[in-house]
């Protein structure tokens, strides 16, 4: 198996643990860590195109993050102030990559993509990691992300924005927590506490919400056909905001709350995901309506 090393300065801004676990950017202000690339069929270095292409069971490893795919294409640029390599450089000449005179700008993974760390896994047909924008985008069929607490699936894309401390799942997005609670919507955006990357951990007693444990998730915004499910209730609406630290969720637009054979409808609703208690609100000039079957439950 052939190997290649990319020495590149890829220090990124501090990112939350959920995003940083699958972030190839490395720790902020840290010394550059080489990316080791291996492939079974071969590795092609094009000085003109400034790319390194690994074909066949390709793998890129940087720190605790690994990317595997049918093919990997690394795009790079020469660092300012470095000497140009002769076009007819012979095999004995050290390449600019080996000398650390190049900077990785983008890594493309194509076919059967798997991005993983010691805790998180993500799958797709194609992934693009932009170093400058600190963005990782996965697309393709059967998109899936797993963490110790949650499983995220989406139809169109799963995206990480490390610098903005957020992740977005687009198209039939679904987050399922380990305790069975779930949030589904057309688009789900998760925002994370930047302190998660500082190495500080909260005592278990202060962070018992399964959805909030995934990299200190502090806010979830869901848009379009929102469905929130607990072990006993289902709440639907046009949009929703969920705050994991408190367990509070707010739904807006055509809200329905279903508990067994009971159903309530209104304009807005406040739902406590921990207690299961929901408060339905009427819109201006409107009213709350519902069907309640006596003796059917709380």
Question: How would you characterize this protein structure?
Answer:
The chain is mostly beta strands and 298 residues long. It folds into two domains: 1-82 and 102-141, no CATH class; 142-286, Lipopolysaccharide (LPS) transport protein A like domain (lipopolysaccharide transport protein A fold), CATH 2.60.450. Helix content is 3%, strand content 54%. The protein contains two helices and 19 strands. A six-stranded antiparallel beta barrel has the order 7-8-11-12-10-9. A hairpin with a 4-residue loop joins strand 11 and strand 12 (166-177). The longest helix is centred in the first third of the chain and has 4 residues, at 17-20. The radius of gyration is 23 Å and the shape is elongated. It starts with a strand and ends in a 7-residue tail after the last strand.
Q: What is the structure about, briefly put?
A:
Helices cover 3% and strands 54% of the residues.
The overall pLDDT average reads 74
Overall number of strands = 19
Structural class: mainly beta
Number of helices: 2
The helix content, as a percent range, equals under 10%
What composes the largest sheet? 6 strands, antiparallel, barrel
- Cα distance spanning the termini: 63 Å
The parts where pLDDT drops under 50 for at least 5 residues are 1-20, 85-99, 196-215
Question: Architecture of the largest domain in CATH?
Answer: Sandwich
Assigned CATH class of the largest domain: Mainly Beta
Please state the CA-atom Rg, rounded to the nearest Å.
Answer: 23 Å
Helix-strand pattern: EHEEEEHEEEEEEEEEEEEEE
CATH superfamily caption of the largest domain? Lipopolysaccharide (LPS) transport protein A like domain
How many independent structural domains? Answer: 2
Strand order of the largest sheet: 7-8-11-12-10-9
